[in-house]
Amino acid sequence: MRTKHGLTVLSLTLLAAASQQALASGPDFRVSGFGTVGVVQVDQPGIEFRQVGQTSGAGESASFKPDSRLGVQFDGSVNPTFSATLQLLAKHSGQGDDQPRVEWAFGKAKLGGGFTVRAGRIGAPYFAVSDFREVGYANTWLRTPSDVYGQVFFRSFDGADLLYAGDVAGVPVTAQVLVGKTTLAYERTDIDFKNQVGVNLTAELADGVTLRLGHISGKLTVQSSTMKQLVGVLGATPFASVGQQIDCTDRKASFTGVGLSVEKGNWVGATEYTQRKTSCYVPDTTGWHVMAGYRFGSFTPYAVVSELRLNDRNVVNNIPRNVNVQLTTLALTVDGLMDGVNITQATTAVGVRWDAYRNVAVKAQYERVDTKGGYGLFRNVGGPRPADPVQVLSLAVDFVF
To answer: Which of 77, 228, 246, 284 is the most buried (most CB within 10 A)?
Structure first.
């Protein structure tokens, strides 16, 4: 199996080692880290498996790019009230490189009464495992289900939040209210999500059973010159309304999710149901997954079923064909744009986690992905639409330190 290594880890490794030595004598500071060395391969030509937003990934030739990563986190406390966190993460990015970037960088103040305020760059709570979605060791599965987590690629926001942790009617509850903005590259195209307002609630309903509810809304802008050019051309025709529907500049967008996790004895399980809504060419979608696993000593076999559905394309292409060449070309261009965001698919996955050593887990996962006649979340790199379900084989070693 031919492989390509897609992650530059040396800089972060040296940084972690140097900082650990420098901070070892300081009781108010600590350094930790996590990483994954993962390889992926698909069974059909002309398509690639990528983590959402990445510029390249794995095809019939296996690649380390989609899953491999290295993160280092620095935590420091000035006193029991004030503290700060910095997390650096290196992985194949939407800019097409593997350079370390600031994932988190925030200050935190405890206000008393169970309240805490944070400001800076903070992890975005879109999903049930948002805070540790990049920490493979913390998850049973090899990777988060793409049919759910592929709907949103933002992992952090720049702003502030207010947290509360305490009991409500005897139920342990964590609540979060946030405001902020995010700018991130999606396949080398900048995406802005500003004026974010969100709420995230987690409740421990019973021993080992946790419920999570979340909602975030804001204004979405896609900085695509191709999209803007198409909107401009349509604006000079009688079909300007089609361009207005496509236009993704300061458009309302929201994401809502509910999740339930269970850990009882040797059983582990999780389920999520999520909805993405926008008012531009980025379609409205629904995603869900159900995962169940059972621990046999150091081995945990598991299964995941999931689906990503397209609810509304948000664009009605009423441009007539066969009237003249110009209108036919415009109609086909709009069709091509909408076909490119048709990400409907359904997945069945089975895998096993082996806790091989302390702080090291080895995982293998097989996925069968039905793209419903399109490309789904796979990227088209010159091949035909998959006629049969795509098979994805993944191996990974997760570690923390």
So the answer is: 246
